Amino acid sequence: MRSRILLVAIGVMLMTACAGTAVRKEGADVQATAGVLKIKAVQTRMSDKAKAQLPDNIKFDMGAMSSTIERTLSASGLEDPNSAGTLDVEVTNVYVRGTFSAVMFGFLAGVDNIAGNVRVIDANGNVLRRFETSASYAFGGAGGGQDGIRLNYLYEKFAELTRDQLRDQR
Question: Does residue 6 lie within any of the structural domains?
Fold first, then answer.
């Protein structure tokens, strides 16, 4: 009986170890746009809070994250040089566990996380779509604690969630 409970507990932990969310934010400043949005350029920046977190999260690479977003959108056909839209990504929260903690303690050492506000802006500065995106990674150990695995997962998950919001047909 105990072994079944242990197996169920492990299964639940594995299913919740990596996650991501994207939540659409409607408002008076957001123009109603339906359908797929294509963008011309990607701009990434960090909020003051995220900048303050960088000394404790030196492994985070804004250039790698930006490149992953651009590559994902290009591969999905959402990048169009004739489009007037710009994707504005503001990273608002960064937490990356230390390598030792991630390998030795896994999810008990916390959860790696990147969160941000994403907006699609037209040529006139109007916001066409706005959403909050968050990607997290809690695996650890010898198989999932290496920095490259964890950070690449976070960058790719953030990019995939962003892509999905641009494709959203609502």
Answer: no
**59 vs 41: CA distance, rounded Å:** 25
**pLDDT (mean) for 72-78:** 94
Residue 115 belongs to some domain of the structure: yes
Residue 12 lies in a domain: no
pTM: 0.82
Domain range for 23: 18-167
- Indicate the residue type of 110: G
Number of structural domains (the chain) is 1
- Joined together, the tokens standing for residue 70 give 């651009």
pLDDT higher at 2 or 79: 79
The DSSP bridge partners found for residue 42 are: 87
Chain mean pLDDT for the chain:
82
Q: Strands 18-24, 127-137: parallel, antiparallel or unpaired by DSSP?
A: antiparallel
Q: How far apart are the first and last CA of the chain?
A: 47
- 11 lies in some domain: no
